[in-house]
Amino acid sequence: MSAQVNMPLKSRGNLASSLPAEQVAEISELFDLRRVGYSLDAPFYTDPTIFNIDMRAIFGQHWIFAASIAELPEPGDYVTVDYGPYSLIVLRNDDGGVNVLHNVCRHRGARVLTAPAGTTGNLVCGYHSWTYSPSGDLIHASAPGETKFDKSCFGLKRAHSRVFAGLIFVCMADEPPTDFDETGKIFEPYLAPHDLSKTKIAYQQNIIEDGNWKLVMENNRECYHCDGHPELACSLFPTWGLTEGLIPMHLEEVWDRNKGAQSALEDRCRRYGLPYQVVEELDTRVAGIRISRDSLDGDGESFSPDGHRLSKKLLGDLRDFRLGRCSMHLQPNSWFHFLGDHVITFAVFPINEHQTLVRTTWLVADDAVEGVDYDLNKLTHTWKQTNLQDKAFVELCQNGASSPAYEPGPYMKSEYQVEAFINWYVQRVQEHLA
Prior knowledge:
About 25% of the residues lie in helices and about 20% in strands.
């Protein structure tokens, strides 16, 4: 686990304090009157003021998944991460740690790095060539005649960072939520055997969905719609999220097959000393989490038409491909699938109240050779199709929320994780508004 980067950006206070009192009262009432077990009122998905509150209360205060260590394999490697009004530089430093810097030049605010990813030594702003060290210190500013210019006062502003099991998280709060370290201790034993430090990017996909970020997360948190994912249903049991008494007749045989596969998977996990039990604290802790190891259909190895492995190389120190998927959900912006042959990370980055960037990254063993050990099209096919289908579903909901006829509808029993996500969200924003 990495230590946090010191000297975070100082907050400008609660956004609500800069709004008219009547508007704050109206927004607070929307949260107070939220009907448990129902979707949110339309303004939560369409109103720019509520979006700005989300950016300050959620994305400006909580731990956000930014990237994996596989995206920064060498010192000087960086990615830029943008969401809402924020732009961050996530940079691998010389000692193997990670620095997170606000991508805002201290001269006149220009973006310092404009590429989505790359390698750099010092960071040079393209506007007036102000130059910063990898830790953000200003080391050069051409300023003739500025005899009193003190470079030490103009370093790039910093954010906190944590690295758990090869996943990089950032937080811009002055004092980040402290329970994230405890959440990291929960999921690290599940993910560590896959060893992300020995993986590489096979492919990364960015999709802009014309929907509010909360609709993207709600869609991910349930499988009630999984009949709309024919490619995924070849390997992912469409009974996910269901329990005895909730199984429709046409899925009874699938449910029985799932139970048998899950029992066999748990036997293998016990044999190899791998944790598999469900841990579900989505709205009972600030750093909400759900993690488990779940069986897959067919050969039970990967997201393929027959469940067979998609890469010939096992990850980390795993000894068996038949390990299903280790599935993890983290509030507020990410979910993950860790398999024996590859890993898929999903990150949600809000753009505005009606657009969201969804970034999907496929990781394989660092010694896997494309065309020899894996076929890139086959590796990515299932989730590329699933992502496009989810994009369409989210956009249908955004269009509906924008209609005068929209009113909140009830969540089904199988959508309990959607309710947990919304409950978590409402709690966090109410804390901010208070």
